[in-house]
Amino acid sequence: MEDVPLYTSVVQVSATDRDSGLNGRVFYTFLGGDDGIIRTLRRLDRENVPVYTLQAYAVDKGHPALRTAINIQVTILDVNDNPPVFEKDEFDIFVEENSPIGVVVAHVSATDPDEGSNAQIMYQIVEGNIPEVFQLDIFSGELTALIDLDYEIRNEYIIVVQATSAPLVSRATVHIKLVDKNDNIPVLKNFQIIFNNYVTDKSSSFPTGVIGRIPAYDPDVSDQLLYKFDTGNELNLVLLNHTTGEIQLSQALDNNRPLEASMRISVTAPLQDTHTRLMVEREGGVGEG
Ligand SMILES: [Ca+2]
Ligand SMILES: [Ca+2]
Ligand SMILES: [Ca+2]
Ligand SMILES: [Ca+2]
């Protein structure tokens, strides 16, 4: 056994000699011993050295001394002296939202350097799973979700898992991070841009920069929205940044003529489209100066 105290006898070798007198007295040379008992001098660790191959000599006290070599193999038996180890004290697991209930979403695993049943590990969640959202298989470490995981409701769960090689245990903190899926359509309501433009000899109130953004909203954080005009903007009266949704007015609108234009805009997330109507209405007139 690897955990035996120092000086424990491991094995006794014995030899016989058919000569008489001193020629028949046998002693053993191995660490200077003469009782033929091999003892431990240091703590044994099977996880370090599982087998020792030793050679001892049985020597008689005759003249000349004759000796015989003896090969001894010492196999260290395992003791459960190591707890299971997680790769890290704290780690991340990524799980896609909307994963079907009961499907294995991840594996929790630890290693145990011992042997046989001393290396058998049992897993359990010991903190952070109230109410029960996840289930951890005690033997396989397979993690399953017990509820419909919705990124938009909650995007991270923190649990503490324990690996047991009875009676030894170790724990790790697991950050279960949901991975966003595109399961929401962009939201965009009809909206209007109303602006008043007064042109005088000296100045103009015409807005030349960005006047705003298309008020679209998408609950999926990872969605990159794309904006474009479907209809109504053939004269390019409104300038649109396709990726940011920012709007500018064309210089062509910088005059006193009243105008009302109806346009249709689409907002696209990678898989889903939303369409909306935009009214551009200008109340023009000669400025009072
Ligand atoms: Ca163990
Ligand atoms: Ca061991
Ligand atoms: Ca969702
Ligand atoms: Ca989502």
From TrEMBL:
Write out the coiled-coil annotation as residue ranges: none
Gene3D superfamilies assigned: Cadherins
Name its GO BP terms in alphabetical order. Answer: anatomical structure morphogenesis; homophilic cell adhesion via plasma membrane adhesion molecules
Q: Predominant location of this chain?
A: membrane
Instruction: Tell me yes or no: is Membrane among this UniProt entry's keywords.
Output: yes
Q: Which PROSITE patterns match?
A: CADHERIN_1 (PS00232), CADHERIN_2 (PS50268)
UniProtKB keywords: Calcium, Disulfide bond, EGF-like domain, Glycoprotein, Membrane, Repeat, Transmembrane, Transmembrane helix
Chain ranges of the Cadherin domain: 2-86, 87-188
**Gene Ontology cellular component list:** plasma membrane
Cited CDD domains: Cadherin_repeat
GO molecular function annotations of the record:
calcium ion binding
Q: Where in the cell is it found?
A: Membrane
**One Pfam family per UniProt:** Cadherin
Superkingdom of origin organism: Eukaryota
Q: Which PANTHER family match?
A: CADHERIN EGF LAG SEVEN-PASS G-TYPE RECEPTOR 2, FAT ATYPICAL CADHERIN-RELATED
Q: What is this protein called?
A: Cadherin domain-containing protein
Species source reads: Mugilogobius chulae
